[in-house]
Each structure stands twice: as C-alpha cells, then as structure tokens.
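Office hours follow-up: a student asked to see two folded examples consecutively, so here they are.
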Amino acid sequence: MEELLEILQDLHPEVDFDECDTLVDDKILDSFDIISLITEINSTFDVAVPAEEIIPENFNSAEALWDMIERLRDE
C-alpha cells in the first residue's frame, strides 16, 4: 500500500489519499491520471488492469485501488 500511496502522491501531492474517497467523483483524478496510474500499477505491482476494472469505484480512493490490485494479484 505504501508504494501505491507514493505513486498517488507523485500525481497530486496536495491530496490526502489516506482520507479522500471521492477522487474520481470530485474530479481530482482525470483520465490522464488514471492512465498514468494504470501504467504505474502494471509495472510496480506486476498486474494487468483489464478494461472492465477501469470504473470509478475502483479509482475513487487509495483503498479501492489497493483492493483492486490485491484482487488482480490473486487471479
């Protein structure tokens, strides 16, 4: 999870990713951020994020992102 938080902080250092759960809903993360995140997740955690996982619920918080990464690792 620490690595994920570092990736997120690099994108938006002004955001408290431990608390925020409306990253997509409040337009903190835009489509370019999400593409960057997917690229970083693929390389850092060695998981492929399939198109069906690219939904707002998976990107609204660091916790949701981490849950998705863990789920993809288990597959």
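And the second, which I mentioned at the end of office hours:
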Amino acid sequence: MEDEERVLLYRNISLDLVSRKALIKGSTISLRNKEYSLLEYFMRNSNRVLTRTRLLEDVWDRNIFCSTNTVDVHVSSLRRKFKKYIKFEIIKTIHCIGYRFGD
C-alpha cells in the first residue's frame, strides 16, 4: 500500500488504514470497529450528504438487519469522542435525510 493510500486526512483527523488507528490533533482516539468503519466512510466521502440508508448499505453487513437508528447511535458516539478535541460539529445532521461530514 502506497503512503498516500495508507492514511486518510481531514483537517486535524488522521486515520491510518493499516494500523486502524484514529488520531485527532495527535491524540489517539479509541474507536470500536464499526465506529472506525463509519469514520473511514465519512472521510472518504467528506462534504457529501449521505443518507442513513446508504450508510447502512455501505458500512454495515448487508446480511444483518439494522434500522436507521443504528446509524444515529454510532454517529452520536463518534460525536461524543470528537467533542473533547474538536469544538465545532464535524458530523452535521441533514434533517430528514442523513449526515454530512466536513465543514
């Protein structure tokens, strides 16, 4: 894997795709597997509006039934973990649609 494919960067957030480590402002953030996968998907699709259904289809196992509330719970968890390091809301709720990661 080339270096540019090894790490995703967005502002002060870096995601190492090999070691599966997330860093915000140089501090390691402990993420569960699904939180990591969700953050990776958000970072690869930054500044795009993503529906809850699309997030379920692309991040969760298609063979397991999950409701869109599952996405909301994981987004809420990511927001809590980011709050200590990032003063603005980086994952924005798009009313009745889904979410947008970015500025």
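Two things to take away from it. Helices lie at 3-6, 33-44, 52-59, 68-83. The mean pLDDT is 91.
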